[in-house]
Design brief:
The chain has 206 residues and is α+β, with helices and mostly antiparallel strands. 33% of the residues lie in helices and 19% in strands. The radius of gyration is 18 Å and the shape is globular.
């Protein structure tokens, strides 16, 4: 076992490394942005793509309790490949949806222009924020259940916690899960208006 002084040095090195990563993915706002939270939407890919690939990010947008976008703050700029490269390149694209919807970067670019650019984040901060929000969530067991064909909707919600997730279903089949996040991308309870939009019940096909 390392000597106490060596152990302290090791712990300090770990803490400094973690602080550097946190500073990169959790930008400090100079003033509160003109919205209340971020809403992350993850698509259940096996329902969309021929390959079973679990959850993929399909949207990450600033929003208010009534689900409205902040008005008058949209930059209207394009997300460039340089932005994506600065945030991680191919590793970023692998975590965003894109099956059957044009080039692999189509969805992330489309969501940025439509709503992500309305946030107080730079393009790279927004991408890193979407990844940080995803990593902050629990991973439901269905991701590892190759043989499963259905799951109880309430059990799936319970994985995230009371009031922490909104499930979307189409024709009784699981499609998306939406979660709410604070300005440091940690999960928070979703507002009543969003929870009321949950469209899954009973046993749902996956």
């Amino acid at each position: 076992m390392p000597a106490p002084t060596a152990l302290v040095a090791m712990l300090l090195a770990v803490l400094l490394a973690c602080s550097a990563v946190t500073a990169r993915i959790m930008p400090i706002m100079k003033q509160p942005p003109p919205y209340e939270m971020y809403i992350l939407s993850q698509q259940w890919q096996p329902r969309i793509c021929p390959i079973k690939d679990g959850f993929k990010i399909s949207s990450f947008v600033p929003a208010n309790s009534d689900e409205s976008f902040p008005e008058g703050t949209c930059k209207g700029t394009d997300l460039t490949m340089e932005d994506i490269t600065m945030a991680g390149g191919d590793s970023v694209l692998l975590q965003w949806a894109g099956c059957g919807e044009g080039p692999q970067n189509y969805v992330i670019k489309s969501i940025w222009r439509k709503a992500g650019s309305c946030s107080a984040l730079t393009p790279t901060e927004w991408i890193l924020g979407s990844l940080a929000a995803t990593r902050a969530l629990p991973v439901p067991d269905i991701v590892a259940s190759d043989g499963a064909v259905s799951v109880d909707a309430q059990q799936l919600r319970d994985v995230y916690g009371p009031g922490m997730a909104v499930l979307d279903c189409v024709g009784g089949a699981f499609s998306h899960v939406r979660t709410c996040h604070d300005f440091r991308f940690a999960p928070i309870a979703c507002p009543a208006a969003l929870l009321a939009a949950d469209s899954c019940s009973g046993m749902i096909r996956i």
